[in-house]
Write a structure and sequence with these properties.
Blueprint: E1 7-12, H1 16-25, E2 31-37, E3 41-43, H2 48-52, H3 58-61, E4 62-64, H4 65-69, E5 75-79, E6 82-86, E7 91-94, E8 97-100, E9 103-106, H5 130-150, H6 153-159, E10 161-165, H7 169-185, E11 199-203, H8 215-222
Parallel strand pairs: 1-2, 1-9, 2-5, 10-11
Antiparallel strand pairs: 3-4, 6-7, 7-8
Catalytic activity: a quinone + NADH + H(+) = a quinol + NAD(+)
Domain FAD/NAD(P)-binding: 7-222
Protein name: NADH:ubiquinone reductase (non-electrogenic)
């Protein structure tokens, strides 16, 4: 690997934080950097909602990790899942092997938070990865197909009823994208139903939508 006088840096996770650290640190030739990730691609999470609504394909937002750091000669990309960290020996274990480090960066990503209501998880779908996005996509598109074949107005009403919990950027974007899908993109593709009659409910516990943004933006979004 690197020369003996190089310091060894191990980065767990090739998300935004991990890759930003790698790009910055790779400019220092005195560092030997190893990136460990259980996926072989970097996922552009802000556009997951467009995969979920069939606007984009998974390949559009999944970029091979090696292509992003491949020009850096002091960076090694490893496909694997870190399973244990020994802080005393400064060792990271992954798959059936291990590697030592001088410095460790943990940027393994995040999971959906249910804010103390973890029992919701089995009834809902998060939106943190491609698996989630594709699951939503499947359920969304299948709901229109089932409604088209139903013939029962009450069943159709139930099938075209979508509830999104969370009025932050992801929730708002997903709600807007489902509305665009049903009102514009596929509206003329069905004969027995009108997708534009879909009901989209956005639930937010805070006083307004988009709490991290200017209040005027949240108010505007509410009235769209």
């Amino acid at each position: 690997m690197g020369e003996s006088n190089q310091k060894k840096v191990v980065v767990i996770g090739a998300g935004f934080g991990g890759l930003q650290a790698v790009k910055k640190l790779s400019q220092n030739n005195n560092l030997d950097i190893t990136v460990i990730d259980k996926k072989n691609h970097h996922l552009f999470q802000p556009l997951l909602y467009q995969v979920a609504t069939a606007v984009l394909s998974p390949a559009d937002i999944a970029i091979p990790t090696r292509s992003l750091v491949g020009e850096s000669k002091n960076v090694t990309v490893v496909l694997g899942e870190a399973t244990k960290i020994d802080l005393k020996t400064k060792t990271v274990y992954y798959q059936n092997t291990s590697t030592n480090y001088d410095y460790l960066i943990l940027s393994a990503g995040a999971r959906s938070s249910y804010f103390g209501n973890d029992h919701w998880e089995k009834y809902t779908i998060g939106l943190k990865n491609l698996k989630d996005a594709l699951k939503i996509r499947h359920k969304l598109l299948i709901s229109f197909e089932k409604a088209e074949l139903s013939g029962d107005p009450e069943v159709v009403k139930s099938l075209l009823n979508y509830v999104i919990i969370g009025g932050g950027p992801t929730g708002v974007e997903l709600a807007g994208s489902i509305a665009e899908l049903s009102h514009q993109i596929i509206r003329d593709e069905f004969h027995t139903i009108d997708p534009a009659l879909s009901k989209i409910t956005l639930i937010e516990a805070s006083p307004r939508l988009l709490m991290t943004f200017d209040p005027s933006l949240g108010e505007f979004t509410k009235n769209v």
